[in-house]
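ping. complex inputs:
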Amino acid sequence: MKKNTTDEMDQLIKKAIQEEFDSIEPPIPSREAWFVFTSNKKKCKWKNIFSTSVNRKFIYIVCAVIFITIFMMTPQSGSALGKISKMFNKLQGNVVQLFVKDSEADYEKSSLPSDEFSIVDGSEAESVSMDLEQAEQVTTFPILLPTWLPEGVSLNEIVAVLIENEKSEEVYLNYSGDNIEFTIRQMDIAHAFGLGAAVDQDDIRIDEIIINGHTGNLFIHKNGIIELVWMTNSSYLSIDGVISKDEIIKIAESM
Amino acid sequence: MIRKLLKKDQPSEQILFEMFYGRVYRVAYMITNDHYLAQDVVQETFAKAFNQLHRLKDPEKTGAWLGTIATTTAIDIIRKRNRWNDVVTEDVHLERVISKHRTDTVETQVERAFLIKSIRSHISLLSDNHKQVIILKYIHDMKDAEIAEALGIQIGTVKSRIYRAKLKLKDTMGHLADVKEREDV
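pong. complex structure:
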């Protein structure tokens, strides 16, 4: 009797639970719920990417690299971070970036350039051809002449870059001979000097060469032109023209 | 289809989702008594299911397997919510029960139907663990041993929870019978 009552009670409970279960209507149809589910899954994917600590660290590193890159690309940062700039003298694909720098002191002391500018009368540079004696008088530095030259080669022309009321800080010596033609360029870099260049290695081969204890770069162009660039403590020197590698080095070492 | 699901085939996932969506939602709602929470439970249940499909031993019992995940997920969600807002949740439950109770006593004429409705209104008053076992037992027709294995608890615990759940519902029915008698008088 008691068992019958218990069974009946169980049946009642089961029916009640089943009825309660069946009475519940989902607020949205299954198709719509599926779209909600898939869109949430996509959001979660992104959330997971940002949530794991490893990924977060990676994102911080990427942001830091982007920030440093942008900072380094800013023109004002070029002189302020001269030492770091030098580190960028490295190979990037086929392009070599070259940075030459002599002194940082003046850059650090100088104030930032103002937005305004003006043209000073007579400040434009002028190239003037002259003889050696005249050139030595107008330049701020003693002109270095090579003591060795290939056979048949002689000095043809000396050109000084003059700015009115100022001594020349730049001079060109043009040499030529049988099938040989080259120019020696000298610049006074006693105060401060720096230059940068991007060179495509597909067109130019670059060798590093020591000239009288100073490191220089030899650029061998596809068209046969050779250029040698080096610096002493007070001068920037370059030789370029149609000449052999051995000859150009020999000329440089004789200066 | 299970093979396709294991390979994360999206059309197969959609078929499974749409097949069991209603069932999972009802289970979720029975435990949470909240449509928004129930929808969260559905989302989480299917997300877990698709990630743990290799654990499904018998494809014919997919419904029961999803029901187990849904009940466990619902309980977890309620526990997390209750840490922040347990009073409100309880109030919502009570209000719902009282309103259903009033409706039932007024509208129901047949004693059996009255009792069933009363039980229904009091299912929500059961503890989450008790609701979980009676849903798995009476909705998914799972045996006590299967429930124990699915929930990772002792079979004795399952029997004890079912017994206590039924006892509470019986007590409620007894109490309601007294109330009805007084109303009739």
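Chain A touches chain B through 28 residues (CB under 8 Å).
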